[in-house]
Amino acid sequence: MFVLEDSETGTVAGICAIEVAVGLNDPWYNYRVGTLVHALKELNVYNALPTLFLSNDHTGSSELCTLFLDPDWRKEGNGYLLSKSRFMFMAAFRDKFNDKVVAEMRGVIDEHGYSPFWQSLGKRFFSMDFSRADFLCGTGAKGIYCRTDAETSDLYPLFIPGKPRTSSVRYIPQTAPARAVLEKEGFRYRNYIDIFDGGPTLECDIDRVRAIRKSRLVEVAEGQPAQGDFPACLVANENYHYFRVVLVRADPATERLILTAAQLDALKCHAGDRVRLVRLCAEEKTA
């Protein structure tokens, strides 16, 4: 678990987390969106049906989860700092994580807790509202839902009244910024969706995540940082038990990073230590 804190006031502004490996204690389920073809050449029959296949394909993957940022703090790069702090931790302690990283995006749910996907599919197997099902999922009951006879078979949304949309996966608008952040880091939708709300699952090979791949260790010194039009950068210590990340303006190509005494204190570092440095956002390509 990671906490975004105002270092001056101690105010907690947000949280996020990493699950090192999903599905090792309780099964990790999602749907793989695919196509099932029924064809008989002699009768000139060919039907390609959109199908949901119950899957455990992401078992063992590391998961980005539990991201929440106070609305008053959704500015000045705070959301990027909170979300990408996890990549700095994963880069520092790469051996503790698996080769694939996944992140579930929230599906379409209205202000009353109504989920079109659950209403048209899940509720037909479990007679309860989405909010109740979502709560039970958080307590570990997801596997019970998936072990029902109906859920162990392939599903054909085409034949379900008010069918869930599998051709264009939808997600709640508030999720769009978080999804954009991950996609710019290399994450992609690979035809997996959540079994409750139908939200897309994004995934990326850990060593292809931009912030992990591009981060590097540099020596830190105390002083007054050079003035200039430098990009925002993430700087993290390498302390597993007292991990810290700060957001600064710096030259991402420097070999010796100069930070103020306050910044060093926030990082729990001293002059001469090595810290991890990377640009906050990918450099924009120019023609």
TrEMBL record:
Q: Does the keyword 4Fe-4S apply?
A: no
Q: What class of enzyme is it?
A: transferase
What top-level branch of life does the organism fall under?
Answer: Bacteria
Q: Which GO terms describe its molecular function?
A: arginine N-succinyltransferase activity
Q: What is its EC number?
A: 2.3.1.109
- Specify whether Acyltransferase is a keyword of the entry: yes
Pfam entry (one) = AstA
What biological-process terms (Gene Ontology) are attached? Answer: L-arginine catabolic process
Q: What is this protein called?
A: Arginine N-succinyltransferase
Give the species this sequence originates from.
Escherichia coli
